[in-house]
Amino acid sequence: MKLFSPDSRFMRAMSMLGDLLLLNLIFLICCVPIVTIGAASTALYTVAFRMARGTEGHVLGLFFRAFRQNFRRATGLWLLLLLAGGVAVVDIWIFAAFSGVLRLIEIPFVLLLIVALFTAGYAFPLLSQFENTVKGTLKNALALSLGYLPRTLVITALNVFPLVLLLYDPYLFLNASFIWAFLWFSAAAYLATKLLEKVFAPYREEKKEEDPS
Fold it and tell me: What's the average model confidence in pLDDT over 155-177?
């Protein structure tokens, strides 16, 4: 009977799994209009951080509150990162058809794509935890992503893995579609918050000192 006690490890794990499944579902639904991906990502991390700290509340309420509160800034961040990434991908694709010295022209665009991916891995988590302008959030996201490169590589891998798999092996991607649909994005965000919590901790302390209340 102890196994099914509300305070048992098993029941806490099952509760967390249920929350992650629900969080993944509402995140995907809110991403359907592509323009809302930024707001959905910020809301995703808002809930994931609370879960990681063991202070989560009602998933739906937390998610949609964060979605509404951060919509404007998150959308601005998302559109800027999408523009940078889109320009980089298109130019890489164009110059990949060239050979010789002309092929070297794609190098700056490869770097731009990497920077955009690194920055995206921190931008929405930052926005979910700290009040700042779009410009300030982008600046801090880039600085932190380069300053904590090993963590950044893991976070970026979690973020891009489904897309890389889709491009490399669409058949395998489709076979694993239940993972993307039910768990991947919320679980990846939860794991990312574990890596980001130590990164953000000093800035949380500064925030507490500036605002003791």
Answer: 94
